[in-house]
Fold:
Amino acid sequence: MPLFGKSEAKKNLIESVGSTPEGYHSTGIIQTMSSGHVSPLIQSKLIKDLENICIAAEAAGFCNYRITSHFDSVGSKDILFAYADMIKKD
Structure:
């Protein structure tokens, strides 16, 4: 899945790590989390979760995508948090 441009989702969502594209506005922050060992599969799941939130809200996509992690020493696993600005066309 691209991190800039159109996604492969049915709605052709805009996904960007950059700022809000011209002609769009932010409608709020969306977020998701997942736990396990850091891998591309978990990161893909986070992006898919954000896509599903956008589709459910009938948004154009998301921008300012960020991901952070925290190591849970009790469970010996990583907890990943993803957040972004949901955007809609002006």
The first helix runs from residue 40 to 56. The radius of gyration is 13 Å. DSSP finds one helix and four strands in the chain.
